[in-house]
Amino acid sequence: xxxxxxxxxxxxxxxxxxxxxxxxxxxxxxxxxxxxxxxxxxxxxxxxxxxxxxxxxxxxxxxxxxxxxxxxxxxxxxxxxxxxxxxxxxxxxxxxxxxxxxxxxxxxxxxxxxxxxxxxxxxxxxxxxxxxxxxxxxxxxxxxxxxxxxxxxxx
Length: 155
Fold this sequence. Notes:
The protein is an alpha+beta fold. It has helices at 7-14, 32-46, 93-107, 123-131, and strands spanning 2-4, 23-24, 53-58, 61-68, 77-84, 113-119, 135-142, 146-154.
């Protein structure tokens, strides 16, 4: 299940606190620095577009996050990023979360295409996207992340 992550949710996560009625996965989601960066990204996207980020929740436990990396461009394309806490990886949570994002995208007239980028060696993430009907469209080199595969899904 996805729950929209607003600024108050991010503030709690930065302090290691789950939203009311939920608990955090043991070991947490991300470092406070990464969580602060994700919060600032969501704030900047929310200036032009909402929703910007979601919590991935399974059995009342926050196990990961999924977010937009940009507001839709003039052609209706949005890029997503997602991550599942190490303690819950390999359970299908990412596949289910991306499926929910695609279901949302199909209902939002502002979105025509969802894209993603994965590290070449991240086979698990490749499977998440393939299982959700994404098509690999090419690759690019990123100064920070190295060689990335580019993916897209028309909605």
